[in-house]
Write a structure and sequence with these properties.
The structure holds 2 protein chains of 2 kinds.
Chain A (H helix, E strand, L loop, with lengths): L1 E10 L2 E11 L4 E5 L6 H8 L7 E6 L2 E2 L11 E4 L11 H11 L4 H14 L15 H13 L5 E5 L7 H16 L3 E6 L2 H7 L2 E6 L2 E6 L1 H8 L2 E7 L2 E7 L2 H10 L4 E5 L2 H9 L6
Parallel strand pairs in A: 3-8, 3-9, 6-7, 7-8
Antiparallel strand pairs in A: 1-2, 1-4, 4-5, 9-10, 11-12, 11-13
Helix pairs in contact in A: 2-3, 2-4, 3-4, 7-9
Chain B lengths: L1 H17 L1 H26 L7 H31 L4 H6 L4 H29 L8 H24 L3 H18 L11 H9 L1 H14 L5 H23 L4
Classes of the chains: A alpha/beta, B mainly alpha.
The structure holds adenosine-5'-diphosphate and magnesium ion (MG).
Adenosine-5'-diphosphate (ADP) binds next to strand 2 and helix 1 of chain A.
C-alpha cells in the first residue's frame, strides 16, 4: 500500500528524517511512535505533499509520489496534528466545503455528511460554529471530514493529544471500527498505550531515525515478556526475562522489594534509546 | 476547474453573506468622511482643475477604496489561513489546482471591492457628484479590484506574519492611496516623484477612471498597464502556491 525507501529530509542543518524505510500493508493500523521532535509529523506531511523531501522514494498504491501530482489525493484522508477546521464556518459547512473540494456529487455529499455526522456523534451540532466545539469534538469532526470522500488510506497525526481519557477511548473505538471496514490507517503518537491498544505494527522513531519496526508482541518478546522492576540506590532498575520461572527466581535473589509485570513498549523504547518516550 | 473556482468563492461568499449588512454599513463610513471632507468641505473652498472638485475626487476615492477593499479581502485572511489557522492546507491537499484556488480567491476579493464600490457610487450621487457611469467605468473599476486582490494574494504568500501584512498596508498601500492621482493630479509634484508615481498601478486606475467618468472613453495605455500588473500578480500567486511547502 505504502512503501518508503531511504526517505531523508533536512531542515537546514537539522535532519528531520534520516534514511527512513518502511512498508505499510493494506488494511493495517500502523503506528509511528516516538517522542516530540522524532520526525513523525514531517513524515506524514511528506506523504501528503505538504513538505518536500530531499531524497528517497515513496510509492503509494503502486504510484510514485511526486510533489506536484494530486493523483493520489482522493485516496487519502488526512487528520493533521493541529486543528485546521475553518473557524468561520459551521460544522456542516466545513464538511460541505470538503465534499465540494473532492468533487462529491450533491446527493452523495448530503447522504455521506449525514451518515458521518452521526457516526462521529456530532449530528446535533451540525449548525454550530466550529469554535463552539470541544477539543474532542473538533478532532472527531476532522476525522469525519477526512473520511467524507471515502479514502482508502487514513493518516492521523497525534489524533488523541490533549484529550481526556474517556474521549480518547471513544476515538480508539472509532479508529478500530474504521480499520475493520478495510481502511488502512497510519497514525502517529507519543502515547505508548495508544500504540499498544491500536496498532498491528509499530515503528519506533527517534531523532529522525527509525530504530525498530515490528508488531508490539514481537518487540516485547525480543526483549523478554516478563519484566522485573526494583529500586536500588541508583534508582529504578528493570531486568527482562523470557520465562516466568526465571523472573521469579531472580526476584527471590533480590533482597528488596521487586515487582513482576509484563514488558511494554515503553521498556522497548527505553532499551533501544536509553530514554523515555514521554518525559 | 470552473467548479473548483466556484467552490473557493462559495466558501468566501458564505462568510460574507452572514455579515453583508454589517459589511455594507462599515464600508459607508470612510467614503462618507471623504465625501464630506473633500467634496463638501475642501471642495467648496478650492477651484478644481476643470470642474467641481467633488467630480474630480469621486473617481479617486473609488480607486483607492476598491484597492484597499480588494487587497484586504484577500490578503489578511489568506495570510492568517496560511500561517495561523493552517486552513490553507485543506486546499493544498485537496484535488484542486493551485490556479483554481488563486482565481477563486481573487474573484471573491473582487466581489467585495465591487460591492463597496457600488455603495460609494450611490453615496457620491447623493452628495451631488456628476460622472458618466458607463461600461468603461465599470471595466476599469473591476480591473482595479482584480489587480489589488491579486496583489493581496501575493502579499499574503510573502509576508511572514500578521504584523508584516499590516506593514505592507502602511508602507505600500497608504502612500499609494494618497499620492496616486486620487486627491490631486501629480503635475505640480517634483518631476522625479512624478516618474515614480507613473510606475505605480493606482495612478493608472485614477487616470483611467477619471477619463471614463468624464468622456466615457477608455484610456488604453493605463488599462494596459493595469492588465499587465494583474497578470503578473496572478502569475506570482500561482508560483508561490506551488512553492508553499517547506
Ligand atoms: N517547518 C520546519 N522548519 C524547521 N524545522 C522543522 C520544521 N518542522 C519540523 N522541524 C524539525 O524537524 C524535527 C521533527 O519534527 P516533527 O516532524 O514535527 O516531529 P514530531 O511530529 O515527531 O514531534 C524537529 O526537530 C523539528 O524541530
Ligand atoms: Mg508531530
Amino acid at each position: 500500500m505504502i512503501s518508503i525507501n531511504k526517505l531523508t529530509k533536512k531542515y537546514g542543518e537539522r535532519t528531520a528524517l534520516a534514511e527512513v524505510s518502511l512498508t505499510i500493508g493494506q488494511g493495517e493500523i500502523f503506528g509511528l511512535l516516538g517522542p516530540n521532535g522524532a520526525g513523525k509529523t514531517t513524515l506524514i506531511r511528506i506523504l501528503n505533499r505538504l513538505t518536500a523531501f530531499d531524497s528517497g522514494e515513496i510509492t503509494m498504491q503502486g504510484t510514485p509520489l511526486t510533489m506536484n501530482s494530486k493523483a493520489l489525493q482522493t485516496a487519502i484522508g488526512l487528520v493533521p496534528q493541529h486543528i485546521n477546521l475553518d473557524g468561520e464556518l459551521t460544522v456542516l459547512e466545513n464538511l460541505e466545503l470538503h465534499g465540494r473540494l473532492y468533487h462529491l456529487p450533491k446527493e452523495e455529499r448530503k447522504v455521506r455528511i449525514k451518515e458521518l455526522l452521526s457516526y462521529v456523534e456530532l449530528a446535533d451540532r451540525a449548525d454550530d460554529f466550529v469554535q463552539k466545539l470541544s477539543g474532542g469534538m473538533k478532532r472527531r469532526l476532522m476525522i469525519a471530514r477526512a473520511l467524507l470522500h471515502q479514502p482508502r488510506l487514513l493518516f492521523l497525526d497525534e489524533p488523541t493529544v490533549g484529550l481526556d481519557p474517556q474521549v480518547r477511548r471513544r476515538l480508539w473505538d472509532l479508529i478500530l471500527s474504521l480499520s475493520s471496514q478495510g481502511l488502512t490507517v497510519l497514525l502517529t503518537t507519543h502515547y505508548i498505550e495508544e500504540a499498544e491498544a491500536l496498532c498491528q505494527r509499530v515503528a519506533i522513531m527517534e531523532k529522525g531515525r527509525l530504530i525498530a519496526c515490528d508488531t508490539p508482541q514481537a518487540m516485547r518478546q525480543k526483549l523478554g515478556t516478563y519484566a522485573v522492576e526494583w529500586v536500588d540506590s541508583a534508582g529504578i532498575k528493570t531486568e527482562f526475562f523470557t520465562e516466568r520461572p526465571k523472573a521469579l527466581s531472580f526476584i527471590e535473589q533480590l533482597a528488596g522489594n521487586a515487582v513482576l509485570r509484563d514488558t511494554n513498549l515503553e521498556d522497548v523504547f527505553v532499551e533501544l534509546t536509553g530514554r523515555k518516550v514521554s518525559p | 476547474m470552473i467548479y473548483d473556482i466556484i467552490t473557493v468563492c462559495w466558501r468566501d461568499w458564505l462568510v460574507l453573506k452572514r455579515r453583508l449588512g454589517r459589511f455594507i454599513l462599515a464600508r459607508m463610513i470612510s467614503p462618507i468622511l471623504y465625501l464630506v471632507a473633500f467634496g463638501w468641505g475642501l471642495g467648496s473652498q478650492i477651484q478644481a482643475y476643470q470642474g467641481r472638485y467633488i467630480d474630480f475626487v469621486v473617481p479617486g476615492i473609488l480607486a483607492l477604496n476598491s484597492m484597499l477593499l480588494s487587497f484586504n479581502a484577500v490578503g489578511s485572511p489568506l495570510n492568517m489561513s496560511r500561517l495561523y489557522h493552517k486552513t490553507l492546507e485543506e486546499y493544498l491537499v485537496a484535488p484542486i489546482s493551485y490556479t483554481s484556488f488563486v482565481f477563486g480567491k481573487i474573484l471573491s476579493g473582487m466581489l467585495r471591492g465591487f460591492i463597496s464600490s457600488s455603495v460609494i457610487i450611490l453615496l457620491a450621487y447623493l452628495f451631488g457628484a456628476h460622472f458618466k457611469l458607463g461600461l468603461v467605468f465599470w471595466f476599469v473599476l473591476v480591473l482595479n479590484c482584480a489587480l489589488f486582490a491579486a496583489l493581496g494574494f501575493v502579499a499574503a504568500m510573502y509576508m511572514g506574519s500578521h504584523e508584516e501584512m499590516a506593514n505592507f498596508n502602511t508602507y505600500v498601500l497608504t502612500p499609494m492611496s494618497f499620492l496616486c492621482g486620487t486627491f490631486f493630479t501629480a503635475d505640480r509634484l517634483p518631476v522625479l516623484m512624478q516618474y515614480v508615481l507613473e510606475v505605480l498601478p493606482l495612478t493608472h486606475t485614477s487616470h483611467a477612471l477619471r477619463q471614463a467618468a468624464g468622456s466615457g472613453e477608455l484610456l488604453w495605455s493605463s488599462a494596459l498597464v493595469m492588465i499587465l500588473y494583474t497578470a503578473g500578480f496572478i502569475g506570482i500567486s500561482i508560483v508561490k502556491m506551488r512553492q508553499c511547502k517547506e
